[in-house]
Amino acid sequence: MLKRAQALFLRSLGTVMALAIAGKASAGSTASEEPVASQFNMPQGVTEVSQAAYDIHMIMMWICTVIGIAVFGFMFYVMYAHRKSRGAVAENFHENVLVELLWTIVPAVILIVMAVPATTALLKVYDTEDADIDIKVTGYQWKWQYEYLGEGVKFMSSLRTSKDEINNLEAKGEHYLREVDNPLVIPAGKKVRFLITGNDVIHSWWVPDFGVKRDAIPGMFTSAWAKTDKVGTYVGACAELCGKDHAFMPVVVEVKEQEEYDQWLATKKQEAVEYASTIGKEWTFDELMAKGEEVYNSSCASCHAVNGEGIPGVFPALKNSAIALGPVEEHLRVVVDGVSGTAMQAFAEQLSEVEIAAVIHYERNAWGNDMGDITQPVDVLNYKQGK
Amino acid sequence: MAHGPATLADGWVKYASRWLFTTNHKDIGTLYLWFSFAMFILGGAFAMAIRAELFQPGMQLMQPEFFNQMTTMHGLVMVFGAIMPAFVGLANWLIPMMIGAPDMALPRMNNLSFWILPFAFAILVATLFMEGGGPNFGWTFYAPLSTTFAPDTVNYFIFGVHIMGASSIMGSINIIATVMNMRAPGMTYMKMPLFVWTWLITAFLLVAVMPVLAGAVTMMLMDINFGTSFFDAAGGGDPVLFQHVFWFFGHPEVYIIILPAFGVVSQIIPTFSRKPLFGYSSMVYATASIAFMSFIVWAHHMFTVGMPIAGELYFMYATMLIAVPTGVKVFNWITTMYKGALTYETPMLFSIAFVILFTFGGFTGLMLSIAAADMQYHDTYFVVAHFHYVMVAGAVFSGTAAVYYWLPKWCGKMYDETMGKVQFWIAFIGFNIAFMPQHFLGLAGMPRRYADYGLQFADWNMVSSIGAFMYGAAQILFLFNVIRTITHGKPVNDPQVWEGAEGLEWTVDTPAPYHTFEKPPEVK
Q1: Same domain, A89 and A189
Q2: Were both Cys, which of A201, B100, B171, B515 would link to B521 (CB 3.0–4.6 Å)?
């Protein structure tokens, strides 16, 4: 009964608001093929935790609404009835111990009543024991890495929306800022535990439909869990300011049926095996340039800029830089190990040997940098093992 | 011996020296108030830039690096440059007049605590024009984004914060010394106007927590320049430590902002209700308990950092409890109005709006205290909406009310009531259009500090921007009204100014003479 009433209330609220803003629709013609409906309330989501958060949210909202109507109702009555212009003459009473005790004790009792469901809900959030699958989630500036612990599967997940869409040079797609190259995939009906950490700064991994939001903090793990039967795609976001592309590292999770998930996992494992064989291969100058440009634009360009000129005062240029035009060992060291104390992260865990070789090759031979040397994946492997 | 202040007629050198070297509490109050208004306009300009960029999805006017500098500078300038100095300005003007003192207890320090502020903000704002840009890590400047990953200008930011902190500490010591030592005979603690009480308590909060902020930024300075690892996990430090230290300062800080606002409203509502404050002593006790509680709830800003469940539960329960003394205050304001004879001049309109909107912000605050739900609200626009309801509709509305209320006493001229009311309605409506939809945005999943957003958030962002522009326009009208009052306002000679006004400041001449209460008044 209450559920129905509140759904009705929210829907009618929504209609009123939608009418109120309908007028602006013609003005707001930012090219979208299909407008996405505005929402007003927290999603109920698809897990026990998100449902618990939603329920306690609605309970609190209704309690506050009722108290608000009572308090403001009385206040508006006073404002209307005791106006001087209506001939009201001020009385001179003040202090009343009974009234003052009442309005201290009654709210305290209401709070104690609220605390009960609030505690139950929190216990549910913290119930991360006995998971079927463990996934390590690592926040990077500005992408996510997912590692299926014990499965040997690990990949980066970054925004797929193009820079041109963001800069309004191209029409915005239906999934603008809600799409990634490699979504996280989990099976339906299994309890999945997320072990969340950060690589550089603090991020926060948030999937509203799972009711999961945990900070990804360098040097420590936080944990959360999700279990759902509802197959589908769920979109989340980074919720802790993490630098300039904070808004551009969405989380996308696909929940698949168990068989589909098994298939997907098998493919991922197969890819890892196939990849190993490409490390030994001799790559040509042009192959490396093509691969390198692709890697550079997805992993390096957000700081060092597409044209290699960086952002003055914040991120150094690579064009004509001492690193790109110096000995290749030093270049390898910077990319593989990072530069501690700066924003230059270690890419050893983020990029494969092939990708590192390609991107170094690209940096040494693009934008007028003209070293002419070739860096092979095997050089990267040797560097890594030589340590 | 009393002497008059230099005016422009004495030549600009003398006139400028008066303001530079003044030790007069009224002059210093005026300086604080004008400075804070200038900062309010600057911080407002940053806000307009933010809302203009968020008017539509996609990056239109700026790139994300600059957007982050705007959100950071907006927060820093508004909190440290606009709201805090505004209330220190009110304290300077009003506390000596309210307690029957001739001036503040430490007048030279008073001059110093003001005059270092413009330098602090010049340093802070100058970073926007330096290579690398201004601070871009949010006003909460979480490490390691603000240390290892910050632009080099972060050192200027740290220096600026140190100067502001020194200014605040000196200002608070002065207020404590004044209230404790300079009260007129018969002015016992429990006879002090509530504005004085709220400021006394606020001053203690400031003295307690500003050094903590100074400690936090000093640790940052060491991490950045001297190779320590307080907040760097790679060196054995802990980024979460930064948040604990910051919020141990930061949570009392929000009460530092709101308590003097409570004081202002507790002066204005009785005046225009023509009826004494309902529960004076319970208001004092409620203020003191809120101040105490502000020290023991800081980690409710950190429900998602993975605290143990016992910690989460403790901070949740403690936070919920704050609703009790806050409720006491709201009930007191309403019962003060009950069976009064109410009139609705501009200060009263702003005060009533304060009570309604602040209470609304209190409700969302209560919702935010519920840890399980906060996992969804945290770092979204729901939080942005919540704290703008308590900071803007709270502190700024009450500051505006205070200016309208005491302006006739300060300059001896009456403001234009119609213009004041027009400003009120534009501000009130604009504010709600700007911030109400941000609750929906947050619940629907839009995180805060986002330079760009998905299409599902487009409608509400546009509505919110329109409201923000309206609210911004109202401030221009405010400035115009104040200047016009000073130049063209209708003279007021009645010491009491308002029919229902009570208190020592309403017993001195209007406009208030340069020196008041050289002989202490007798308080019965």
Answers
A1: no
A2: B100
